[in-house]
Structure formats: structure tokens, C-alpha cells
Amino acid sequence: MTASPPINPEVVNRPLVICGPSGTGKSTLLTSLFSSHPNTFGFSVSHTTRSPRPGEQNGKEYHFVRKDEFMDRVGKGEFLEWAEFGGNCYGTTFAALTALHPLRCILDIELQGVLQLIAKAPLQSPPLSPVFLFLSPPSIPTLKSRLSGRGTETDASIKKRLDAAKKELEYAQKGRYDVYVVNDDLEKAGMKLELVAMGWKGWEECGDKLPEMDLAELE
Ligand SMILES: Nc1ncnc2c1ncn2[C@@H]1O[C@H](COP(=O)(O)OP(=O)(O)OP(=O)(O)O)[C@@H](O)[C@H]1O
């Protein structure tokens, strides 16, 4: 068996930003990518103003900070992106990203964060300019059945996620992402994610076409 080529050194310094509706399969695919390529990728540790849940350690799952400190650091321009959800702030600092070097940073973030990064991208020097990947469900009924099938969400939380999915898919339809991957067949989607994440030859053209979806089905 021939060993697969190592990560392309040209993409190591470009963070990979993954966005997609909740339930599309981001965690499933990333877990598999990380286990196939240990010590290759790093997840940046976000800052949050929410309280730690039992078992969460400061600096591991999140850096837990008070809101005044968070906003002070936002004012100082320390955040690459940040957003507020349900009264709590979440964000990624430049320092959290650079701390991962030489691992390639993967960011699994919400649309608000993606929009901030896309707005800033032309201002970044090439090594910091992210690659933006949108992971799409094959259809809306499939997205709904994956979300409810996961068994982790209440009806209210499913509704919130589907509302967010509508905005995410609306934005995705504008074609601003560098690569679109449809998570229909897990193995095929995993191979495409691997190609993009490793920056192997062909990564820029391996994407799928975004499926036609009637977003009214999300209402
Ligand atoms: N290609 C696939 N075919 C069938 N089921 C899948 C596929 N990909 C993921 N799933 C299933 O869909 C459900 C949602 O996947 P997952 O939890 O990875 O989504 P997610 O995008 O990370 O969601 P969140 O943003 O809420 O964390 C899981 O139960 C997972 O096993």
C-alpha cells in the first residue's frame, strides 16, 4: 500500500472554515478526518461568556471569560470573529489560531462568524486567508430526519436549528464559499473533505454543485 501524500505545505497556514446547517454531518465527518490524520489538524479553542457545563475545563472546551473582558478584547481587535447566541458571546481570537501552528486550523463556525471572516478575508495576508467550505445536506427532508434521528434535540431546539439552516442555505446559494460538499454518501463526502483539508492536488475543483432546495420547507 502506498502512503498518502502529506498535507500540502501551501495550505497549512490557511485556516479551513467549515459551515453548514446543524445536523448536516460536520462533527461526524470531522471526527473521521481527525482520526485518519492524527496530529495534522487543530481546533482553535473559542472564548465564551457562557458558564462552564459540568466537566468542562477552562482552556480545553472553551476559554471562559466574563462579558466585560470579552467586549474589552473585542474592542482591542483581538477577535478574528465573534457572535452572540442566546445572550452569550462566542468568538475566535487570533491568538487561539496561531497557537495551533504548525497544525492546520479547522474552524467549525456559524454563519455570523463566516460573514465576518469573509468580510475580512481580502484584508488578510495570504497565509491567514481562510478556505471556506460549505457542507450541504442532500435535501431538506434528509436534514430534518438527521436532526431528529440524532435524538439530542428538543422540538424547540430543532425549530431553532431549522430557522438557522434557512439563513445558512440562503447565504450558501449566493455562491460565496470556495468549495461546496454535499453530505449524501458519508464515504464520498469524507473523501472530498479530506482532499480539501489536506490541500492535495485537485482540492480546489473537487466540490459538488449545491442541490436545488425549496427553503420554504424549512418554515
Ligand atoms: N452521510 C450521512 N448519511 C447518513 N447519516 C448521516 C450522514 N452524515 C451524518 N449523519 C448523521 O446525521 C446526524 C447529524 O450529524 P452530526 O451530528 O455530525 O451533524 P453536525 O453538522 O455536526 O451538527 P451540529 O452542528 O448540530 O453539531 C448524526 O446522527 C449522524 O450520524
From TrEMBL:
Residue ranges constituting the Guanylate kinase-like domain according to the UniProt record: 13-198
Stretches of the chain forming a coiled coil according to its record: none
Pfam families attached to this UniProt entry: Guanylate_kin
CDD domains in UniProt: GMPK (cd00071)
Keyword GTP-binding: no
Superkingdom field: Eukaryota
SMART domains for this protein: GuKc (SM00072)
A single cellular component GO annotation: cytosol
InterPro entries recorded: GK/Ca_channel_bsu, Guanylate_kin-like_dom, Guanylate_kinase, Guanylate_kinase_CS, P-loop_NTPase
GO molecular function: ATP binding; GMP kinase activity
Entry keyword set: ATP-binding, Kinase, Nucleotide-binding, Transferase
EC number of this enzyme: 2.7.4.8
Membership in a protein family: Belongs to the guanylate kinase family.
Protein name: guanylate kinase
Organism the protein comes from: Kwoniella newhampshirensis
Organism phylogeny: Eukaryota, Fungi, Dikarya, Basidiomycota, Agaricomycotina
